[in-house]
Amino acid sequence: MGDEKRLFQIRKADANDADAILACLGAAFESYRCQYTPAAYADTVLDSETIQRRLREMSVIVAISEGTIIGTIGIGISGAEGHLRGMAVLPDWQGTGVASALLQTAEYELLRNGCTYLTLDTTEPLQRAIRFYESRGFSATGRIWDFFGMQLYEYSKSLSDSHSGRTE
Prior knowledge:
By secondary structure, the protein is an alpha+beta fold.
């Protein structure tokens, strides 16, 4: 049974998914809690108020298997820039293609909405995520912000390279 291909679907989230998204974020980031400041961790895993704001202000995409949300990613659009926020995959599902499918879906949605590049911000403890993003064409921009007492590193990727030959 352990060698079976694990099936999941990707869809846009709605307000009814809020609690399950919070559970996914919490489970995905729990092992990093001690490496985050309390305020940075709270901003990363959200709460009942901030998840509702994210669902209103961003397009949130979820991966679902057997009725359970196993992954999530938020996308925001500002002109030509798409911004990724809050990507998380349940620990038992990491390395199974869920993150790739979420990212691919987010990129398609951003392209459909006229974005030519996308950005994301990440922290030093998330080395596995950084390697994942770099392997998918993201590069550090050199921009670093204070994130509740931690350093927040910006990464970006052109969406137009493979579609129109242009770069940003």
